[in-house]
Amino acid sequence: MLDKVKETIEKYNMLSCGDRVIIGVSGGADSVCLTDVLNDLRDIYSLEIILVHINHNIRGEEAKRDENFVIELGKKYGNDVKVFSYKVEEMAKKEGLTVEEMGRRLRYEAFYKTAGENGKIAVAHNMNDNCETMIMRFFRGTGIKGLGGISASRDRIIRPLINISRDEIEKYCHEKGLEYCTDSTNNIAEYTRNKIRLNVIPMIQREFNENIVASMARMAELMADEEAYMDRAAREAYGKCEIEPKRINIDRLLKFDRVIQRRIIRLGFSDYSADLHDISYEHVENVLSLVNKESGKIIELPGDLRAIREYNTILFYKTGEKKDFCYSIEPEKKYVFRELGLGIMLSRKEFKNYDEKLKNMYTIPLNYDKIKSSLVLRGRCSGDKINLYGGTKTIKKFFIDEKVPYSKRDFVPLLTMGNDVIWIKDMKTSVFFKAGGDCENILYLYTWEV
User: Fold this and answer.
1) Is the distance from CB of 291 to CB of 253 less than 8 angstroms?
2) Are 35 and 79 in contact (CB under 8 A)?
3) 3-state secondary structure at position 162
4) Cβ contact 444:347 at 8 Å
5) What pLDDT was estimated at residue 357?
6) Long-range contacts, stretch 67-75, CB < 8 angstroms, 24+ apart
């Protein structure tokens, strides 16, 4: 057992000398085995070990029994123990999640909190868990990544028992005289994973393949290797398609095979949803359908994620990213708005060389007599309009005509008087407000990049 675990640790570079390791300990055979093994390896790797136990408050006295057991287990090995207690069923109902999902979220929050910035998190997933997970994902219609099973190591999470079967774990505990707790809910065929463990896998072992757990482990390793290769290829392809952050060129996208196209789409959302569990095959296909849709078409996805076709591009974004801005602008005051990349000043004085250090500075003379109320720098609003040489045009129509991407329209600074737009950053100045040659009262608009 110890040699197999060391081989797994070294193969996936799970531990380094001096690591702080958090072990998630439920009190069951798997986590007790993991605790014993890592403590056997503690001196070899100079490990600092902390046991973390989560009381889900679902099984009453049995849950309290497990908590006390883990505390005593820590004393046995000289490990610090951190216990977190949550009313998982109540929290799951409030959040609209299953008890399983809520429990998993809370467990990993507790693990990361205890681990700090650099600590490793060791969890006791084994070969049987991997088999169950792969079957669950297969039933849901997963791709290669899902069939790769539970990763041996990801981020700071390590799974030293991933190549050890449940039978081996129980045999190890028996031979070493290790006591452990049995969770009564494991024998209730109510949760999906329990149904697979209690019903599906035993049926496969009887009727098809008695070594299904080991067979699935081999397949998981093959799928994981292929997934890694495909991911590298997809990331290289994404880099060729991306023309600015989160925006890809459709013509470049279509040069790749459909398999790579799907992966490019998923990568477009990776900054918003690291594991992408909620992005299904159907969602990806819907986003890909944008290549045949008109500009402005939006595809909505879970988690407030969106994809929009803008002319010959697809933009990936998350709603709620828009930050409204609205600033009163008074004459003879200098304003710097770094979030807008803009410096601005209004003055009755004309400065021939206001500040040579300012980047891309522009001077626009305005007719002061036509400014009847306070001026505001803001984003677009319903009813905004601007006077051009061809007549008055709504800002909405102006942006469409100028092919300003939909996703950028709310971020374009406008200098306004009510719904009258005086100036559009980097684009136009109203002919109504711009000072002519016979204008007596001039207000100079100075703008520069910051």
Assistant:
1) yes
2) yes
3) coil
4) yes
5) 65
6) 67/27, 69/27, 69/179, 69/181, 70/25, 70/26, 70/27, 73/25, 73/27, 73/32, 73/35
Domain limits, CATH 3.30.465.60, in the chain? 245-318
Region 245-318: CATH code: 3.30.465.60
The CA distance from 106 to 124, in Å, is 17
The residue count for the chain: 450
Distance from C-alpha of 24 to C-alpha of 35, rounded to nearest angstrom: 9
375-381-383 Cα angle (round to 5) = 95
Per CATH, is 2-220 categorized as 3.40.30.10? no
Region 370-384 average pLDDT: 90
Token output for 194: 């329990």
DSSP letter, residue 199? I
pTM attached to this predicted model: 0.65
Angle at 170 between CA 165 and CA 173, to 5 degrees: 125
Q: For the segment 59-99, what is each residue's pLDDT rounded down to a tens digit? A: 778 888 999 999 999 999 999 999 999 988 899 888 888 88
Q: CATH 3.40.50.620 in the chain, residues?
A: 2-220
Backbone dihedral region for residue 159 (phi beyond 0: left; psi -120 to 50: alpha; all else: beta): beta
